[in-house]
Amino acid sequence: MSDILKKIWATKHDEVAAARKAIPFAEIRAQAEANADRRDFVAALRAKHAADQPGIIAEIKKASPSKGVIRADFQPAEHAADYADNGAACLSVLTDRNYFQGHEDYLKAARAACTLPALRKDFMVDEYQLFEARAWSADCILLIAAELSLPQMKDFEAIAHALGMSVLVEVHNGEELDAALELTTPLVGINNRNLRTFEVSLDTTLGLLQNIPSDRIVVTESGILATTDVSLMQQNNVNTFLVGEAFMRQPSPGKALHSLFFG
Ligand SMILES: O=P(O)(O)OC[C@@H](O)[C@@H](O)c1c[nH]c2ccccc12
Questions:
Q1: pLDDT score at 12
Q2: Domains and CATH numbers, the chain
Q3: How far is ligand 1, taken at its centre, from the CA of residue 25, in Å?
Q4: What is the pLDDT of residue 1?
Q5: Ligand 1 center–CA 244 separation, angstroms
Q6: Rounded distance between C-alpha atoms, residue 82 and residue 182, angstroms
Q7: Of 10, 109, 134, 176, which cross-links 77 as Cys (Cβ 3.0–4.6 Å)?
Q8: CA of 144 to the centre of ligand 1 (A)
């Protein structure tokens, strides 16, 4: 009941209500549909795999509810260029203000500083946010199966695809995975962090893996901190990673990426 995801969800509904007053739906939709600046998120990951490289989605995250401030000297554009120079395939940029100290301006600045496709990392509860994401030039959106019904996810996926955005569907148990596999997106994220308890276990990825058809791209998310974590995943044929903290805590997030994956 009082878990963090519920709180975040309530905040999101309030935020969307306020946003709809500030910029009416028809207007944000027009902005989204007029934005022709698209980068293919899934293709960027596949290109790395085709070159025998890991597909790294490098996250730009200042703070989180479980860790507090992760990086005080926060420079989204600089971090994005640094990630791009060091072999990242894609960016993930937190836009949630209340819980992650994110902002849409960070997404815009990060994406503009490089040529990588960018994920709007936020909690999507209303189609309005999908149009916002595209208006801000996001190339991918996140759907969290723990809180969305299957009909809602199907609906959001159809809108995202119609706007030319990719979809990362995030799960952390078998029931959520069953729903995620009803979608058409190839990108299935397994969050090693339980968003209700903040507990992190890489076994979450390993346990769900065998139930995922080989035409999907499994993204292991959260808690990848050491080269042993990376090689454990690679031994299990998981070669797509969403990593934030391990990079953002280091003086150069790009160098940290390089040493974790290519060191
Ligand atoms: O910083 P980490 O442990 O490397 O995790 C990154 C990413 O997986 C995490 O930020 C995340 C995964 N799913 C989310 C959903 C909402 C907010 C944040 C997240």
A1: 98
A2: 4-33+51-262 (3.20.20.70)
A3: 29
A4: 35
A5: 7
A6: 36
A7: 109
A8: 11
54 close to ligand 1 (CB < 6 Angstrom): no
Quick: pLDDT tens for 204-213. 999 999 999 9
Find tokens 């306020």 and name the residue: 18
Q: Looking at the CA of residue 243, tell me the nearest atom of ligand 1.
A: 4
Per-residue HEC secondary structure of the chain comes to CCCHHHHHHHHHHHHHHHHHHHCCHHHHHHHHHHCCCCCCHHHHHHHHHHCCCCEEEEEECCEECCCEECCCCCCHHHHHHHHHHCCCCEEEEECCCCCCCCCHHHHHHHHHCCCCCEEEECCCCCHHHHHHHHHCCCCEEEEECCCCCHHHHHHHHHHHHHCCCEEEEEECCHHHHHHHCCCCCCEEEEECECCCCCCECCHHHHHHHCCCCCCCEEEEECCCCCHHHHHHHHHCCCCEEEECHHHHCCCCHHHHHHHHHHC
Q: Quick check: CB of 59 below 6 Å from ligand 1? A: yes
Ligand 1 atom nearest to CA at 67:
1
Read off the pLDDT of residues 54-73 as tens digits, 9 standing for 90 and up.
999 999 999 999 999 999 99
Cα of 79 from ligand 1 centre, angstroms: 17
Closest atom of ligand 1 to CA, residue 59:
6
Q: Which two tokens stand for residue 124?
A: 């999507």
How far apart, in Å, do the first and last CA atoms of the chain sit? 43
pLDDT tens digits along 119-145:
999 999 999 999 999 999 999 999 999
